[in-house]
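Reminder to self: keep the SMILES exactly as supplied, no canonicalising. Ligand is adenosine-5'-triphosphate.
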Amino acid sequence: MSFIEIDNLTVTFRAQGREVRAVEGVSLSVDERESYGLVGESGSGKSTILRAICGMAPVSGGSIRIAGKVLPAQRGRAFSADVQMVFQDPYASLHPRHTIDRTLSEPLAIHGMPDRDARVVQALVDVGLPPAFRFRYPHQLSGGQRQRVAIARALMLKPRILLLDEPTSALDASVQAEVLNLLSRLREEQGLTFLMVSHDLAVIDHMCDRIMVLQHGRTVEEISRDDLAKANMNTPYARSLFEASADRMLGSTTEPAR
Amino acid sequence: MSLLEVRNLRVTFDTETGPVQAVRGVSFSLGRERLGIVGESGSGKTMTGRAVLRLIRPPGRIEAEAMTFDGQDILNMPEREMRALRGKRIGMVMQDPKYSLNPVMTVGRQLTEGLRLRDRLGRADAVAKAIAALEAVQIRDPHRVMDAYPHELSGGMGQRVMIAMMLIPEPDLLIADEPTSALDVTVQAEVLSILDGLVRDRGMGLIFISHDLRLVARFCDRVLVMHKGLVVEEIAAANLLAAKHPYTQGLLNCLPRIGGPRGPLPVLDRTGV
Ligand SMILES: Nc1ncnc2c1ncn2[C@@H]1O[C@H](COP(=O)(O)OP(=O)(O)OP(=O)(O)O)[C@@H](O)[C@H]1O
Ligand SMILES: Nc1ncnc2c1ncn2[C@@H]1O[C@H](COP(=O)(O)OP(=O)(O)OP(=O)(O)O)[C@@H](O)[C@H]1O
Ligand SMILES: [Mg+2]
Ligand SMILES: [Mg+2]
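Structure tokens returned for the bound complex:
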């Protein structure tokens, strides 16, 4: 039995008289302490899979189990102590009129955790932000600074599972490296399990043991990290993602830029 | 004559804890070319782009020796004239597209509004043009997306809708702030080739803000490297990967690679720079 088991998941949105099958029959399982990556075309349903786990998407078929248990319809407090998500869109997920301090300390207050002050400061330092930033509002931060606040917030409750939706896509190389190192270290120290979306195959390769490639809401193929590195993929779509990867384009084995 | 001329631009925010200098004296000129701006998170890239459009909200303020667009003084131009330039002759793709789109208006209305009011197109023509723009940015089901609200789009779809909206008026200058950061590589390549075509065929000027050095090295002509509100290096894009500035060099070393080692990635030593 795996830690996260998604079986034949289908998500159907209904809007303006139309049906959108955002996810169709996707199955995947992630072991405890494993790190699993989702890649694929823009609009292929990656974020929707993560949102479905959090109870934030209209699931129309299939099941999601964590540690063998089917999730309750209302995810509730116990769920958020165990599972935290970093949203793709940090602006939308941070409350515009709450200071960073409030955003980071509120989960601690709700769950009755001690040492709030020290933890907030430590969380900011961990993601490379000066502690003085706790007095700012989201609009007073740059895009990458906001994304780091969103990551810090997800870590506040020391969850066992982190759902990471493009966690470093707004970050420059140095901050990305710091955040990825932090995530890897926490996974090691606290035995975290990751389900992570990124369009950057090099990031996915660095962080994940197994990878699922998606297109139009369906699974294209699942690849191990070794097979990715060896370019051992079975489908033309997965291969095209690999071949167009920026990482390869400037690699020593290929031609230099232009 | 260059399309855009910026001399000694400063952007300062007065906060409760004192002034924050987001941009501290940036100068550059732009022709009908692709100019990249790269740099660390918080280095002032977005504020530089927004300042050109005078989109800095109080308590932020803009100071500069000069800011001219196509021979016009955009530093001192009345707000009314500035508004006429925005969107029409100078477009900006915002870093948070879903936040910048109107949340209570369908994508279709947002795309066609300008065409109908400004260009006086009929409804059917405006819709046809909007759908063509969505198809160009690789939106698979443009009819559905026309009827959708921004929250019903994926991250990368929101980004592409924003790009389509900025390209419809055929601006002379486009400031694109991380325009492809949420796109997979194949869709990204399509979007870049549209931008490339506009620069080459129509002579549009493009400011391409990105933290992705490899992308910028491949796509742009010239690159400004920003650090703490200053331009620390200006370099031909083709030479970016051989950049001299220790900061630029350091950034390149931090990138993971497919098949690379799994240990901690090198990080920038911030004490030195
Ligand atoms: N609330 C909603 N109502 C209607 N359709 C939606 C809604 N949310 C998402 N969708 C649709 O579901 C599909 C999948 O979206 P999703 O956000 O999961 O894609 P994604 O793989 O994360 O893409 P990206 O890489 O661009 O972020 C898209 O076609 C999108 O328009
Ligand atoms: N309203 C504000 N008040 C105070 N400081 C601000 C405000 N808005 C932005 N800043 C600061 O200005 C600096 C430059 O911000 P800017 O958004 O230009 O960064 P950026 O280079 O675009 O970074 P990123 O790559 O993370 O988007 C940041 O350090 C940010 O915290
Ligand atoms: Mg997404
Ligand atoms: Mg920015």
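Points to follow up:
Chain B is about 35% helix and 25% strand.
Chain B has a mean pLDDT of 91.
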